[in-house]
Amino acid sequence: MTRDTATRPLRIGTRGSPLALAQAIETRRRLMAAHDLAEDAFEIVVIRTTGDDRALIAADRPLKEIGGKGLFTREIEEALLSGGIDLAVHSMKDMPTAQPAGLVLDCFLPREDVRDAFVSRDFASIADLPEGAVVGSSSLRRRAQLAHRRPDLKLVQLRGNVQTRLRKLDEGVAAATFLAMAGLNRLGMASVARAAIAPEEMLPAVAQGAIGVERRQDDPRAEALLAAIHDPETGQRLAAERAFLATLDGSCETPIAGLAVLEAGSLWLRGEVLRPDGSEVVSGERRVPVADGAAAGHDLAREILGRVPPGFFDWR
């Protein structure tokens, strides 16, 4: 693929947060290397989403009350459909499981660290938190998992970028919070984490640590460019995890965790669903050939749905 395949730069759409920009720059870097293209062959286009605006005016309210995770992708996907951009870079854990008609999400970069990061100024781990300590998180999944493990803690909403959350810790709003290790690594801020939490202790969000690049279905240029940077193993893992999420009808108002790992030619999928207050957890796992990952995701979700007690989802 040479520079003269287009008369204008390839436009890469992204949100404007430091992490979103880091992900877009990583995508550009991989495309430059794969196709021997100069930086000016690309243009990074920052798109402000409804979610960004609503998050600013409703920082202490759950995302489900201000419209859900789709608010962080809608304007970007509209720009992609209209031809305003050529590619859209997303954090996959924020993506709905279905894409709008005309768009395709089949390029995934090599996955980063999937673990959650424990962040605190005064304490080294969850176990070190004193009884009644205030812990802030915007993630319903993390709050439910923590409530299940430490029902003595006080859990509050805490949103914002890394810098905002660190400032809130300094101000005493909370004694600790959680971030994704992947995001900290991509920002060069891994030292912010006091500890990385093993999946056995806190199963991560579906697709955590993965970057996806969305394109128009009828754009062969973008398809050819992205094929060269797609990581098949990440795609195989996400196929299982996102199938699990889709069958559970997961959203930002449902505490769901899931992780697929490739091991010696097979795929190990773990998943769980929780009540928001952490009082109940239903979990399961599957070990299958890699090619059967998506089917295993659907199957595991159906099994879990069959095991949840009556009234489990009444809070939705």
Account of the protein in words:
The protein is α/β, with parallel strands linked by helices and 316 residues long. It has three domains: 128 residues, D-Maltodextrin-Binding Protein, domain 2 (3-Layer(aba) Sandwich), CATH 3.40.190; 82 residues, Periplasmic binding protein-like II (D-Maltodextrin-Binding Protein, domain 2); 66 residues, 2-Layer Sandwich (Double Stranded RNA Binding Domain). It has nine helices and 13 strands. It has a five-stranded mixed sheet with strand order 2-1-3-10-4, sandwiched between helices. It has a five-stranded mixed sheet with strand order 7-6-8-5-9, sandwiched between helices. A hairpin with a 2-residue loop joins strand 11 and strand 12. The radius of gyration is 20 Å and the shape is globular. The N terminus is likely disordered.
**Overall number of structural domains:** 3
Low-pLDDT segments: 1-5, 55-60
Structural class: alpha/beta
The CATH topology label of the largest domain is: D-Maltodextrin-Binding Protein, domain 2
Q: Fraction of residues in helices?
A: 25-40%
Task: Count the DSSP helices.
Answer: 9
Shape: globular
Can you lay out the helices and strands and say which pair or pack?
Blueprint: E1 10-14, H1 18-35, E2 42-46, H2 50-57, H3 74-82, E3 87-91, E4 103-108, E5 116-119, E6 134-136, H4 140-149, E7 154-156, H5 162-170, E8 176-180, H6 181-186, E9 195-197, E10 211-216, H7 220-227, H8 232-247, E11 256-263, E12 266-274, E13 281-289, H9 293-307
Parallel strand pairs: 1-2, 1-3, 6-7, 6-8
Antiparallel strand pairs: 3-10, 4-10, 5-8, 5-9, 11-12, 12-13
Helix pairs in contact: 8-9
